[in-house]
Design a protein that fits this description.
The chain is of the alpha/beta class. Helix content is 48%, strand content 12%. It has a 5-stranded parallel β-sheet, with helices on both faces.
């Protein structure tokens, strides 16, 4: 089973993806871990694409993350895409809480990168909260386009709009793992 969890930054992709992978007993892959380098450096395609392809070479995984430029690689063999489409107030609230928690804990976000959240970053142009607000509606429009595209007709899309739907989805997946790849939209 090959699944991609998508949604606006702060929507809970990583938390949900880990839980789904655990429920299905398949590997979880965090795209940010593959993407981000030390000091918030971003890879070019020649570096990113081979790493992502290698990570997705197995027959079962749950991948969280968007990065439109990786779509052809992520969706080459994907069976299901789960879109966490929460309201903008909820998503921004989650992004703020996550950023503040990370600032307090000073946890390294992705092993070996040294990348950490900071107050300076939170209130800069590079703020994840600002990014969430700026990209929310654009990402929603882009995802709706993917869902209606003939190019992606072979992919099962699930649109989850509330924590209650998250719980129901995970319960359904636990009862019947095949539920994840059955059409619901």
């Amino acid at each position: 089973m090959r699944i991609n969890v998508i949604g606006t930054s702060g929507s809970g992709k990583t938390t949900f993806g880990r839980e789904l992978a655990s429920t299905l007993q398949i590997p979880f892959i965090e795209l940010d871990t593959i993407f981000w380098g030390p000091d918030w450096s971003e890879p070019d395609d020649s570096e990113l694409f081979p790493k992502l392809s290698a990570a997705l070479s197995s027959d079962s995984w749950v991948l969280d993350g968007n990065y439109s430029r990786t779509l052809d690689i992520k969706w080459e063999r994907v069976e299901a895409v789960i879109w966490l489409d929460f309201s903008i107030p909820r998503t921004v609230d989650q992004a703020v809480k996550r950023a503040v928690s990370r600032i307090i804990s000073q946890e390294e976000l992705w092993p070996g990168t040294g990348n950490r959240e900071s107050l300076k970053k939170l209130f800069s142009r590079d703020s994840i909260v600002l990014w969430t607000i700026q990209t929310y509606f654009r990402r929603k429009k882009k995802i709706l386009g993917y869902i209606s595209s003939e190019q992606y007709r072979s992919i099962t899309f699930h649109r989850i709009r509330s924590p209650k739907q998250v719980r129901r989805f995970l319960q359904s997946a636990a009862r019947d793992p095949g539920y994840v790849i059955k059409p619901s939209m």
